[in-house]
Amino acid sequence: MKKISKYKVDKLLLIVLFLFIIISLITINSAEILISNNTLVYKQLLWYIAGFIIAYFIMFIGNDFIYKNIWIFYIIGIISLLGLLLFATPINNAKCWFTIPGIGTIQPSEFMKVILIVTLGTMIHKFNEEFNNPTVLEEFKFLIKVGIVVLIPSILTFLQPDTGVVLIYLLITIVMLFISGIRYRWFIILFSVIALFIVLVLGIYFINTDLFINIFGTDFFLRVDRLLDWSNSSGYQLENGITSIGSGGLIGMGINNTPIYFPEPQTDFIFAVYANNFGFIGVLLLLGLIAFFDIRLILIALRNTNLTNKYIISGIVGMLIYQQFQNIGMTFGIMPITGITLPFISYGGSSLLSYMIMMGIVFNISNETIRYTN
Predict the structure, then answer these.
(1) Residue 266, Cα to own-chain centre: how many angstroms?
(2) What is d(CA 7, CA 14) in angstroms, rounded to the nearest whole number?
(3) Domain count, the chain
(4) Which of 47, 97, 155, 205 could form an SS bridge with 349, CB 3.0 to 4.6 Å?
(5) What's 208's DSSP letter?
(6) Spatial separation of the C-alpha atoms in residues 158 and 162, rounded to whole Å
(7) Distances (CA, A) of 163 to 84, 232, 262, 286
(8) Residue 136 located in a structural domain
(9) Half-sphere exposure (Cβ direction) of 335: Cα atoms closer than 13 Å
(10) Are 133 and 99 spatial neighbours (Cβ–Cβ below 8 Å)?
(11) Angle at 31 between CA 26 and CA 33, to 5 degrees
(12) Does residue 1 lie in a domain region?
């Protein structure tokens, strides 16, 4: 049997990842003109370099080390989220970041997404090993444990406030539980409860604003109000973003030629900058790369025999697809604006490092798949 190197990676994933890097740097460079900041490209490149170093380190220590010590990482993640609420300096009325002199800001909730995926993956695998044919009561007890594990970081993140990341936590959990094979009745119950809660909240919101504020507070009212803005395609950022996309035409207006200003072009609305620069053809190329990347991850999971790996990749894929759809959709006005970035493309150190941590884990899994198939 041919010997496989410990550090062998899926070449197709790596090629697409390098294309993402090129697209990210070029688009961020165009976005810099709108915000009069010419340092973001260099910072993003440094974050990518740091990300590859971290991914290599994860390949060096192996996934087993991470899986065995995930509860230590979970506790560290919870402490960091709690530390934000107690000690972080507010930025734009939110305590989402630690400010580190000489480095910038670090957002712990981004890393908590990775920690939560691995934690749930190990929990689900352990449960399925212990119970080949679990009873309804055994599943219920397991779901209570999962609920507690997810609820703690969700509450701490919601209080920052960062509703967008909380939605990602919940989506990761739903996707991974669905893949785990538990009874579908639990999803019917869950979606029914969620629907009832949404109807109740929106009912109070539309019927009696004062009562809504008294019950849920002004902060939650403003968040709901912002989420509902997308329904009538209102808002300066959204209108200018849509105009920028439309003005790109078939082949785009060219690099560094985004004449229409809108807030957060380097992060939340980076897709609008890209579409303006590269047009409809460029958009098709990017969407094709994204689809290929996601499908490749799914194929790696299907070919791997380790169930923990399958659950973890399902969580990663679910998170990526949601963020891709949410970020691109909100620039067109078909999804609410929640501040969720486009993976591997948007500017951001914490988010990029969290994705590269995931890639280190994925490269380890793909390496195992290569070993099994050889």
Answers:
(1) 16
(2) 13
(3) 1
(4) 47
(5) -
(6) 5
(7) 15, 21, 22, 27
(8) yes
(9) 17
(10) no
(11) 110
(12) no
pLDDT tens by residue, 117-152: 999 999 999 999 998 888 999 999 999 999 999 999
Residue 279 placed within a domain:
yes
pLDDT at 355 over 50: yes
For residue 5, is it within any domain?
no
C-alpha span between 153 and 147 (Å, rounded): 11
Do 237 and 267 form a contact (C-beta atoms < 8 A)? Answer: no
Phi, psi of 21 (to 5 degrees): -60, -45
Rounded to whole angstroms, how far apart are CA atoms 118 and 73?
Answer: 10
- Compute the distance between CA of residue 117 and CA of residue 359 in angstroms, rounded to an integer: 13
Do 44 and 28 touch, CB atoms closer than 8 A? yes
Contacts of 276 (CB under 8 A, 6+ apart): 30, 244, 245, 247, 248, 252, 253, 257, 258, 260
What is the CB-side half-sphere exposure of residue 298 using CA atoms within 13 A? 12
Which token pair is 304? 């791997």
Contacts of 306 (CB under 8 A, 6+ apart): 365, 368
Where does the chain have alpha helices with state H? 11-35, 40-61, 63-68, 70-87, 108-130, 136-158, 163-180, 185-207, 209-216, 218-228, 236-247, 270-303, 307-332, 349-373
Write out pLDDT tens, residues 203-259: 888 888 888 888 777 777 777 776 666 555 556 677 778 888 888 888 888 888 777
Q: Which domain holds residue 348?
A: 11-373
Tell me: pLDDT of 34 over 60.
Answer: yes
CA dihedral 192, 172, 125, 144 (to 10 degrees): -40
Which token pair is 47? 């974050």
SS3 135: coil
Nearest partner of 32 among 258, 337, 239, judged by Cα: 258
The C-alpha atoms of residue 119 and residue 125 are separated, in whole angstroms, by: 10
What's the 3-state SS for 154-205?
HHHHHCCCCHHHHHHHHHHHHHHHHHHCCCCHHHHHHHHHHHHHHHHHHHHH
Residue with tokens 């169930």: 307
Looking at residue 265, what DSSP letter applies? Answer: T
